[in-house]
Amino acid sequence: MELGNWPLIVPLPSYGRGRELPGGRYMSFIHGDGLSDVVITGENGTIDGQGDVWWNMWRQRTLQFTRPNLVEFVNSQDIIISNVIFKNSPFWNIHPVYCSNVVVRYVTILAPRDSPNTDGIDPDSSSNVCIEDSYISTGDDLVAVKSGWDEYGIAYGRPSYGITIRRVTGSSPFAGIAIGSETSGGVENVLAEHINLFNMGVGIHIKTNSGRGGLIKNITVAHVYVENARQGIKIAGDVGGHPDEKFNPNALPVVKGITIKNVWGVKVNQAGLIHGLRNSPFTDVCLSDINFHGMEGPRSPSWKCSDVFGFAHQVSPWPCSQLSSQEPGSCAI
Hints:
single chain, 14-stranded parallel sheet, GH28_Enzymes
């Protein structure tokens, strides 16, 4: 591919550089900045990003800049994306960043399981976002809520909040519903419900890291079916790299008010892992009515936990001792 004519745009201020490589980034196939009242729709017509050329350049390490998204809106509002098939994105598929009032519904997003970083929908430092009634099968997280990267995201300070994700079905070697790992502006008030996941790496993944800072608060995930997964639930404070060496390792994220309920999993290798930070334990983590069944054989899926406080009710297999069976007042399940 001849990239000499492919336009470069500046890094997002909340990232400080391209997500993959320093410097600018290649402009998304469909790109909008400062727009209002945008509709992308069709009778299930296909937008094909022909991403395999980009994936191969990524694998061969011949890229100079970060790959383009398939669709990106920046600083925009009142967006509807519906009834379209998106396939083979070079990088993330649909990326609303610094946006408000975004609806994505009745879409199909497809990419091979081995395609690198082909996230489905990534609301990023955006508010009032609804993602519903869609099928996503890609090489990375199906839906990942983000809000900027380390010191750049902290300085930009724009959280993601008011995010609703419902009636989404899909498959991925990574996560089904993800928060992070770039959460430096904060992520609050997220509801994900009625999610069906097949052949997954992780069903539900909340991920951050030292140096991120940011508050992750009031996250509810409910009515999830997971079939054939490496891990059912993972909430971890040691995930994701850094844009440069300027991050503050003492900028610790705060994770509180995580409610996960009504989850049924079969063929799940490990039920869950909750790995908080020693100097910033995860608090008010509430698990309720969760059943994970392992692969065939005597081994049942287990839990591993550290630096977490919370509550568990009717969870099988029974999770870690750090999760009390005595319901605290903050866990309104």
